[in-house]
Structure formats: C-alpha cells, structure tokens
Specification:
Elements: H1 3-21, H2 28-52, H3 57-83, H4 89-117
C-alpha cells in the first residue's frame, strides 16, 4: 500500500473513533475509555505521518513502532467497549477491523524495513 493511501486510512480511522466516542454512554468508566481511545486512535495517523518524514531507516522503524503500539492499544479499547456492552459489536466491528488491518500492515512494514536494514 502506498504512503498516501495509508495516510488517508489512518486519518479516517481517527475520525471514525472520534465519532464513535460521541455515541458512548456518559459515565465515569465510559468517559475514561473515551479519553484513552481518542488519544491512542488519533495518534496512529499522526505518528504514521511522522514516520513518513523519518531521517533514517532506524528512525522510521522507531516511529512505526509507536504506530504499532497505538494501533494495538486502540484495538484493546475497542474490545473493552464491546465487552462492557457500551456499544454493540455491529457498531464497533468495522472500526476494530480497520484498526487490526492497520496494525498488521504496520507490523509487516517494520519487518520489511528490518530485513532491508540487515
């Protein structure tokens, strides 16, 4: 996948998460999850953009590791939203699927970059 498409997908994921949290019930626990998932979910695209401007392969790998961590954390918060019955699986599933695809592609990119570096 090319850089422009991946940038668009990560930005769209951030927007989907922003919209999703608006549908969460208002409670202390849901508000806590909302803050966490907004932080992790929107950081995916921001950190991918930073990776695109990396100064070296090692720098790019480090920045992509941050994208990986943000994606994995976002997947966790989405699982909690479903398992706590805050929103239906049908509502969250497309966002979780996209998050997991971005995570998988990021991990694959890191592996490719590491193999080239060696």
């Amino acid at each position: 996948m090319n850089e422009a498409i991946f940038k668009k997908r990560t930005k769209q994921l951030g927007i989907a998460i922003l919209r999703l949290v608006e549908e969460l019930p208002r409670s202390i626990s849901a508000d806590t999850i909302a803050r966490q998932i907004v932080r992790s979910g929107t950081s995916i695209g921001a950190n991918y953009r930073a990776a695109c401007r990396a100064k070296s392969t090692a720098d790019m790998i480090n920045k992509l590791k941050i994208v990986e961590e943000g994606s994995n954390e976002t997947a966790y918060w989405l699982e909690l939203i479903i398992e706590a019955d805050y929103l239906s699986q049908e509502k969250v599933s497309p966002i979780a699927k996209e998050t997991n695809e971005i995570l998988a592609m990021t991990v694959a990119s890191i592996k490719t970059l590491r193999s080239r570096k060696s």
